[in-house]
């Protein structure tokens, strides 16, 4: 998506940070996907098909998959569900993926992670054909982004970029700091930011003096899954904070990696948990599925000033 310039974002600081509302933006993205798909179908095209594979009964995975299936209905995408027992052999899962790879009515294949310990995750993600890799986990997908030739991009990092773009935040020239280097978020997030012209520092478990790196960030993206990993006083005044972490407290409350209330007093923009990056990940999955079917998705409308 194009970037929209609305002036110097870092100067737009008030007493409390403005909210990067992923729920609002995801609705706009899904509405754009729906409009593009309906126009495609109206011209005689086929609705995109998404195969959703869930292995086992992990409660968090089951909840997330149900949400993805609801998003498919909103977006006008045909979802085909494959719920397999936790003891499913790896060979059986790979055989199912092969069948879906060859199915002309399936444009995207999603295997919900994490997988049971007896199944090799890279073997599964790389078994999905790159052109049907709507999660963006295939080595070809990530490699294409690294070479500045993006195709189907990893959903969470692309969703973060869409969220920033929606609010007119131009990252070119910013010093971005990514906390976390996972294959799902941290590494491809770094590639997305490089692609859009940011200067990027990626921190990880071997990083020395995390605080010093965070203090220099114009844009801070935190994706560790460890509450309290970032202290609010480390955040540069006027910075943009994107919290990708999702953690559940003993009381059952969902929180991020960043102390929201305190960080909001220092940042210019901040994403909440829940309601920030999570909805964007699912909306981007819908966008990737439409694009895998050869449908160009129109950009969502910008919010009113």
Précis, in short:
This protein is of the alpha/beta class and 305 residues long. It has helices at 22-42, 59-75, 90-101, 121-125, 139-146, 155-166, 186-195, 210-215, 260-263, 277-292, and strands at residues 18-19, 49-55, 78-84, 108-111, 175-179, 199-203, 219-222, 240-243, 247-248, 254-255, 269-270. The strands form 3 sheets. Strands 1-11-8-7-5-6 form a 6-stranded parallel β-sheet. Strands 3-2-4 form a 3-stranded parallel β-sheet, sandwiched between helices. A two-stranded antiparallel sheet has the order 9-10.
What this model shows, in words?
- This protein is of the alpha/beta class.
- The chain has helices at residues 22-42, 59-75, 90-101, 121-125, 139-146, 155-166, 186-195, 210-215, 260-263, 277-292, and strands at 18-19, 49-55, 78-84, 108-111, 175-179, 199-203, 219-222, 240-243, 247-248, 254-255, 269-270.
- β9 (247-248) and β10 form a beta hairpin.
- α2 crosses α10 (277-292) and α6 (155-166) crosses α7 (186-195).
- The two termini are 20 Å apart.
The total number of structural domains is 2
What kind of assembly state do the chains in view correspond to?
Answer: single chain
CATH topology of the largest domain: Rossmann fold
Give the ordered list of helices and strands: EHEHEHEHHHEHEHEEEEHEH
Poorly predicted ranges: 1-13
Overall radius of gyration: 19 Å
Largest sheet: 6 strands, parallel
CATH superfamily of the largest domain: NAD(P)-binding Rossmann-like Domain
Strand order of the largest sheet: 1-11-8-7-5-6
Question: Which terms summarize this structure?
Answer:
single chain; 305 residues; alpha/beta; Rossmann fold; six-stranded parallel β-sheet; three-stranded parallel β-sheet; 11 strands; 36% helix; disordered N terminus
């Amino acid at each position: 998506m194009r970037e929209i310039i609305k002036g110097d974002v870092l100067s737009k600081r008030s007493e409390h940070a403005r909210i990067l509302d992923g729920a609002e933006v995801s609705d706009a993205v899904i509405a754009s996907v729906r409009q593009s798909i309906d126009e495609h179908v109206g011209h005689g095209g086929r609705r995109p098909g998404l195969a959703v594979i869930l292995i086992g009964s992990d409660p968090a995975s089951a909840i997330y998959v149900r949400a993805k299936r609801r998003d498919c209905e909103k977006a006008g995408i045909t979802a085909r569900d494959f719920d397999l027992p936790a003891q499913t052999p790896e060979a059986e899962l790979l055989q199912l993926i092969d069948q879906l790879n060859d199915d002309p009515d399936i444009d995207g294949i999603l295997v919900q992670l994490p997988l049971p310990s007896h199944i090799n995750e890279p073997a599964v993600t790389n078994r999905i054909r790159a052109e049907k890799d709507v999660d963006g986990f295939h080595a070809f997908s990530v490699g294409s982004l690294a070479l500045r030739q993006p195709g189907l991009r990893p959903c969470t990092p692309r969703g973060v970029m869409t969220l920033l773009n929606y609010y007119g935040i131009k990252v070119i020239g910013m010093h971005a700091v990514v906390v976390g280097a996972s294959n799902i978020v941290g590494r491809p997030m770094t590639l997305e930011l490089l692609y859009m012209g940011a200067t990027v520092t990626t921190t990880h478990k071997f990083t020395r003096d995390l605080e010093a790196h965070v203090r220099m960030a114009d844009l801070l993206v935190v994706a560790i899954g460890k509450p309290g990993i970032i202290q609010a006083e480390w955040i540069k005044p006027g910075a943009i904070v994107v919290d990708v972490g999702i953690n559940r407290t003993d009381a059952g409350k969902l929180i991020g990696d960043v102390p929201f209330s305190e960080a909001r007093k220092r940042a210019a923009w901040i994403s909440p948990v829940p309601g920030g990056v999570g909805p964007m990940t699912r909306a981007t999955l819908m966008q990737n599925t439409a694009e895998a079917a050869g449908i160009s998705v129109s950009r969502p409308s910008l919010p009113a000033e």
